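Ticket #4471: structure output looks truncated?

Reporter: J.K.
Steps to reproduce: submitted the chain below (338 residues) through the standard prediction queue, then opened the result file.
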Amino acid sequence: MRKNFIISGSIILSFFIWLSGCRKEIQQPKEEINQLNEESIDQSAEKKGHSGGCRVAVFDYYDGVADFHQFDYYSYKKGLVDEWAVWYGGVYKMEYDHNGRLKKARNYDGDVLLYTIHFFYKNDKVVKEIWYSGNTKEVADIVYYTYNRKGQMTKGESINNDYYTTNTYTAKGDLAGWKLHISGSLFATADYTYYSHYRNPLKLTPGVDYSFPYANAAFGTTDRWYSSEKITYYDENGVASVYYDQDPRQTKWQMAFQNYPSYVGYVDKLSRTPLSVAFEFENCGRSNNDHSSHHKANEAGNRNISPLNGKAPSIRSILSGPRSKIRQRMNEMRKQLK
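Returned output as attached by the reporter:
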């Protein structure tokens, strides 16, 4: 009897010790919980190899036809993209879940919050974005993404802004081309070649897997950087005109590290106009962090030239400008190209 009493007492004591531990866990200060969440994001980034290694700091796309530079700037926190300053003036500030996966982005114009974007996943791919106006529940846009069996983005469609982009891929998995339809009308297409086996620097933006601020969101998502790009645009009657057609035989490459280019110079077959892309990196060691060595592609300085003040309207300003004004920009460009 005494033995049973001792056993029962031990069980009751163990129960109270367990309950006390639970209470301590429940009463854990908010600051500690937040710190643990941040640590888990940090650890997740480390597991994915994001905490170290080279990252893109600046992407400079130069459209020589319109004499128009586009600069995108990336800053990082805990190995993941923290802020993405896009060329048309907005800044996207990122939030991640405990697995280091993008869950929310806020788009600011200065101190003004324009949009709050929520990301929804299926099979680890973003299948839907909801863009809310400011910090409200007013839906400004819903964007859907479709993928093939290989996990490649085949379509992105904006419901409120009335456009969609379809993408095709090569047998090796590179982006072969895309087509942009606005209000049901084909407006622009792109075609790419890959004669060189140089790696894609835009893959070095951990946390951000695709170009969600832009209409052609699949651009820069595949493993290799292109040897040439051909852009074709269409008027309201469906008549095609070549904007530029880069000659891959004249493409010049300069390498940064590990087969990643720091600069790629292109030439338009038709007009002999130079075009280029340039990249600046960080966290790559002293030799690869010297931004001053990254070409004269930044001659225009850290300022984008208005597409309407250059030699010609820039197709790029429509493809990668603010999506809420995409129809307006298309109509303006069609009028000007006449």
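Triage note (M.O.): checked the attachment and the full token line is present. DSSP finds four helices and 17 strands in the chain.
Status: closed, working as intended.
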